[in-house]
């Protein structure tokens, strides 16, 4: 049973998770919240009437460096957004979301929104006038609405705390969002319990009602039930997928087969997938071997063995090239980085490219990809993304990332690790700092 569907979670839908108490005046409550918000942004203290879930979220937002006058940034657009949405598991339950919530959103002048596990909006649908108004604050598909990006808001906070959340008026951290009210519930993978994203209803003060919170929770449960009934999608027989990140021996999925490649064959396939126009024998020789004494005969023998492993038709010569597109995990990370989708790129990055490879061209790609991603993470200042990198095997000694993490998450553990790294860096060669 997923966390959202557990009996304990159901029992916890108490007053602290509902924005307005029965009989409360929305206008007066909104004025009180605006005063409390100004107090917090000026002095860092939260007046007692503010709900605990909101107070905790405000504090997290401030620690993440979110400013009350900020705005959401659009990370994915056009073709990149379409490709990402098509791959996302929640695409399979969008018809259900539309069936259960579409009419309610349109008739009530609300919006139906769905975000991924990073708080990035994937779909925003509903009343046309309300959509145009929401565009002014970048509440649009492809924009990132996580707490660490725009502070307290229903979809971002629901993902952050992994439970249904209602956010009313000035409970929103960013001022330009405060005219709105929203309710969202996380959606989980029914097999693993992992948060896939959240479903949200956004609109006016009328949504500050216990029914809207129960409604999105019920929709999230229905989506989890449908996902449990849907069999995993198998790759089509004519697709070719290459996985080479975080492993010394790449894996190719082709024609329903999974082929584990040798290190040299992995290097060749990575380079040919990157150059669909093909490479000459001399170009491949320079890209693969540091030793200039390696002869073209050696390379031709490797390519002949690779052709037999792949089967007929996929590897051609003069120039050496792949006869069908091969989608690699390297290209996925590069494409998401180029689109500014840093968190999506970090999710797809499972480690350095063929970490044991000494092939000059592979080493350059490996270094360029890692440097590009870590630079983007440091610039983004997202504490969760920085922590994921810092605690991964390839980031545990990355001084720049640890310094960036200490700036946005100054815990004792982070400062202790940073001090140890700086001490090691300052130690004389051959001597271990203690």
Automatic annotation (TrEMBL):
A molecular-function term among this protein's GO annotations: DNA binding
All copies of domain OmpR/PhoB-type, residue ranges: 256-322
SMART domains listed in its UniProt record: Trans_reg_C
Entry keyword Cell cycle: no
Keyword DNA-binding among UniProt keywords: yes
A UniProt-annotated Pfam family: GAF
UniProtKB keywords: DNA-binding, Transcription, Transcription regulation
Domain of life: Bacteria
GO biological process entries: phosphorelay signal transduction system; regulation of DNA-templated transcription
Protein name: Putative 47,3 kDa protein in thcA 5'region
